[in-house]
Amino acid sequence: MQTNREFFRATRRGKLLKIVKEVYLREDICCGHKVCTKCEDTKRQLYTPEERARYEDSLSQLIGETVLVLDTNVVLHQIDLLEDPSLKNVVILTTVLDEVKNQNFTIYNRIREVIKDKTRSFYVYSNEHSKFTAITRDSGETPNDRNDRAIRVATEWYKSHLHKLNIKVVLVTNDRDNATKAKKLGMDVKTIKELVFEMSDQFPSLVDKLSSPEDAVDSADPNNASAVSSKKERFSFAEHRPTAVLTEELKQGKVFQGILRTDQTNYTQATVQCHSMNEGKGGEILIKGIENMNRGVDGDIVAIELLDRSLWTSASTVMLMDGQGVAEDDDSVAQDALINVTQTAQQPCGRIVGIIKRNWKPYCGTIDFKGDITRASGIQQLLFLPMDRRVPRIRIRSRQVENLVGRRIVVAIDQWDRHSRYPTGHFVKDLGQVGDKETESQVLLLQYDIPHHPFSEAVMKCLPDPAYMENLTESDMIGRKDLRGEVVFSVDPPGCTDIDDALHVKRLDDGNFEVGVHIADVSHFVREGSAMDLEAAHRSTTVYLVDRRIDMLPGLLSGNLCSLMSNVDRFSFSCIWKMSPEGVVLNVDYTKIYVVGQYLGWQKDPPTLPRLRFAASPSYTQGVRL
Ligand SMILES: [Zn+2]
């Protein structure tokens, strides 16, 4: 069976292009449940036993008595929750997967990792290619409505398909409209919150991972709105202007745009470089105080309006200390707690009137809990204190306070309501005990966004043969000078494995000196634009922690072929000076060379180094002493 899907796309020149996709609908797409016999029959007809084994091995299987079908909004907003291993037996429809891919590629990659993990029983059902569940868009139906309907149709199919086996199918959605329509069709529907609370006796940590925009669905309800506003009347930020308004005001030069750079020690003060200020010459705007910051978080791209010139001032140099002026219920003091200690020159000041793009990421920190843990029961509202002082505290909810106090945890921000002094977020993961070396190392790596994953296969494929230097060819030597006869040494601590530079110095016959600095010739092994080059560019540097080193390049290069070790031939890029005895540079030469290390390393007693080939040569000690 074949069906056509048509859609239109505008070209760059403004013409409409009609795209027709032919889709072949299949009858043999399996529901993915282990005990389903209907699909078993289909499979038996289609595959040889070997093919079937291979096919089944490639998939996760649904196993439980309840199967969950997720709506797109649940995947997009609750990925931390979905990554929790206690959530199992989930159907991901291709409609959902495609929507997630279009809206957020990072989340798409994360859900794919979950699907790959066979212990999780996440099954991808190709509903758009199945004869039983594929639908076409009705005239007048928005793409969104069409996708919602596709999800309902597929859920209904699952329900009737698994009905006789007593397997329950639940549609998990936070879309009110989709839920109402699905319930009308007799489906079992739950919000993610309902689902998680049902599971919370068995898996209490799940509740913490619930992302809070779920409340937004309730508060959008007019019956509920009054309750929310009366409770929070005491404090509110100015409303953010809508994107359309900001776009217009940016064009007219009424507001400026830039990246918010928050003070290292005080999240209520920031500066923004605005390129369009001062007739395009650019300038810096200072933002001071929590109200002018108006929910901007470090890294966000914000829209700023300048304050009246009479209000311009200078940056405050006071650090915001723990708990200073930020008592949970005292909304009046935070701004006043900052006193200017030194006055520097006044500068343009402004306030944030809108957020163009958020740059929220997971933050490491601790729970700020001063009460009696033993008396904390049920769900607690907690304040999370990020280690990064540029970030405000974050409200989270937890049922497991006793497990979180004293731990380094990761928290993500979900939203920042204008009636709340702090953003709200959710618990992502526990990194371990505060003060533990392993935990704190993890914190540093996460906090500073240091890429520390193992090198990919593509990178490892770029590596040369480990015995490369023993099998050199003519082409390796082109343009290289042979300095293997010189006494070349490095000044590195004992045990150093990545010796990236070395020196040599010798007296010339004319009384002058030759001084050379040799840098390992990494470019001989790392080709521009290769996977290894890109990865190294991304990492930028080797990172040294107390107990480990995170290499910029794989160990074969950083600790071997590009390390100027003793007694082995290595390539370097060198700078060689000719100097007078007074140290005046007479000549300089940059060249690629071929050196053999008679590298000394940093040793107290050179003559006890028998490994060095020329340890007995007078030029050796002479070179080092010079
Ligand atoms: Zn089946």
Automatic annotation (TrEMBL):
SUPFAM superfamilies reported in the protein's UniProt record: Nucleic acid-binding proteins (SSF50249), PIN domain-like (SSF88723)
Q: Domain RNB spans what residues? A: 480-623
Write out the ranges of the annotated region (Disordered): 214-233
| Record localization | Cytoplasm; Nucleus
Gene3D superfamilies annotated for this entry? 2.40.50.690, 2.40.50.700, 5'-nuclease
Q: Which GO terms describe its molecular function?
A: 3'-5'-RNA exonuclease activity; endonuclease activity; enzyme binding; RNA binding
Keywords, comma-separated and alphabetical: Cytoplasm, Exonuclease, Exosome, Hydrolase, Nuclease, Nucleus, RNA-binding, rRNA processing
One GO BP annotation is:
rRNA processing
The residue range of the signal peptide is none
GO terms for cellular component: cytoplasmic exosome (RNase complex); nuclear exosome (RNase complex)
Cofactor(s), by name: Mg(2+)
The yes or no answer to whether the keyword rRNA processing is present is yes
Q: Pfam families attached here?
A: OB_Dis3 (PF17849), PIN_4 (PF13638), RNB (PF00773), Rrp44_CSD1 (PF17216)
Per UniProt, residues of the PIN domain are 66-180
Which PANTHER family does this UniProt record tie to the protein? EXOSOME COMPLEX EXONUCLEASE RRP44, RIBONUCLEASE
Question: Which family, according to the similarity comment?
Answer: Belongs to the RNR ribonuclease family.
Q: What is this protein called?
A: Ribosomal RNA-processing protein 44
Q: Which organism is it from?
A: Cavenderia fasciculata (Slime mold)
